[in-house]
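We now fix the convention by which a protein and its fold are recorded. Think of the row as the fold of the chain written in a discrete alphabet. Here is one such record, which you should read through line by line.
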Amino acid sequence: MGICTSWSELNPCNLPTRDLASAVRRGVTDAGGIALEFPTISLSEALVHPTTMLLRNLMAMDVEEMITASPIDAVVLLNGCDKTVAAQLVGALSAGKPALSLGSGHRAAGGWRGQTLTIDDSWRLADERRTGRIDDDAWARLEGCLSPTPGVCNVLGTAVTLAMVAEILGFALPGSALLPAASPQRLAVAEATGRRAVEAARRGPAPRTLVTREALHDAWRLVCAVGGSTNAAIHLQALAGRADIDVPMDELRRISETTPTLVRVRPNGPHSLEELEREGGVPAVVRELADVMHLDRPTAGATTWRDIVRDLPAAEGPALRPRTDPIDPRGAIAVLRGSLAPSGGVIKRSAATPELDGHVGPAVVFDGLDDLRARIDDPALPVTKDSVLVLRNVGPIGAPGMPEAGAIPIPANLYRAGVRDMCASPTGG
């Protein structure tokens, strides 16, 4: 059994995978297999330049060639940071040997001045820093509090979203995506993943049988229901391409419009990933969407999704709303088409106030990140609370490789005037 790990000291999101690898090895050994660990390149969203998207396919080729060229019968993929999950799934799909995936898990929440902090607070705090509300000494203390432990971002960002996608596609064991990095349950799941890998080596399935049109539809529906990362659209398209499946943007739009928004986890609401996990995680969301999901597809646990959700209780907690009482009857992710994105774009409408659902205003255009940094806080910037900020040349082609811009900062003069809300729309190619 191969253990393909993207562990690296240059990648704090992936640091927990070293301990996970040891746990997977125990599971493989218990099931009568021989575990052989091997590394691939590791892409840290915050540290790799110019962009991790530029290198995602390089990592996918690294993973594919190592799996294909090595004398292994199956592989366990250990990942964490955004592109490492996507690259491993894409590479394993092309390699064709049975594969299971397990993410490093999300880091613990931080705390500062009596506030509980998750990584999405960094945008607000950075705005306060830029406008002089946080001084140098306070910022130095804050830096040690925001991300107190290893693990991926502790919100519904790309890493957690893709871990959930791996689970719904059948690469990760049911219930594994939302376990915290530091939890003993994640080590137990790692052992179970090792045992399951030995069984998969003997009986399958091959990755190509998991990535079907129906599975990709279910994965996108899950993303739309929970308010996951808009980047999931790009990575699902990559998986679809490796499986020779065409999933056009209009198809994604139709799925979104027939999927209710059910989850209020940051940045889409006040609740935490831990709360969603306690309320049932991915299986609980699938249960609420049972009438529009393909429940006879296999899970990574040698069962079907119908078996998993059959006896689950209905949603009752604050993080996951029942299908009968959705947050919004439409999906949290909207698919757009227009002059700014003629080939299509996506927007996470659940992360903004309803007032921003439709808006007309004058455009303020920035030609790339350097221009943005140079002018965003200029007092002479011709911007008002009604302006539409456009950041050009940061897409998959123009940057190159779609840098993690995250969000356009709120201009300093507007922030000082009390403007706090913005709806960001990453566009397609």
In short: The CA atoms of residues 347 and 425 lie 5 Å apart. The first strand starts at residue 2 and ends at 5.
